[in-house]
Amino acid sequence: MKKQEHYLNELLGSLGVFYIKLHQYHWYVEGPRFYTLHEIFEEMYDEVTADLDEVAERMLQLNQKPASTLKEYLELSFVKEAAYTEKVSAEDMVKATLEDYKLFVEKIKEGYDLFDGDEVTTDLLVGLQTKADKHIWMLEVTSR
User: Fold this and answer.
1) Beta-carbon neighbour count of residue 78 at 10 Å?
2) 3-state secondary structure of 20
3) Which superfamily does 2-143 belong to?
4) Contact (CB, 8 A) for 98 and 136
5) Would residue 31 be called left, alpha or beta, if left means φ above 0 and alpha means ψ between -120 and 50 degrees?
6) Could you read off the pLDDT of 88-139 as tens digits, one per residue?
């Protein structure tokens, strides 16, 4: 159970950091694609908010303790923060978001064996991967 709890907390922490990163991109995006990307980043962070809640609630159902502080999220996250010491181009924001979604898919796949026999958690992971795969496809099309 400990390994499962740690895995879900890593996922939770990464979603928390990703939420903040997407919010930053939403605020700081500039250029000719501003409006479109501004809206897309907002849709993404709204979705991540729901995912964050769903993972935490599943952990509670499993009698696990979900991480709930920014400090814990930063320590657990496999997503890296976006530091704003200089201007970031819209293209670099899209590229970073695409890479983060790919990382989520990679990490989500690691959970399938870990939760073998727990169909509810596996279904949660499948849903998260489904959304991430769709964002990957859309961001790759956007980057062309």
Assistant:
1) 15
2) helix
3) Ferritin, core subunit, four-helix bundle (1.20.1260.10)
4) yes
5) left
6) 899 999 999 999 999 999 999 999 999 999 999 999 999 999 999 999 999 9
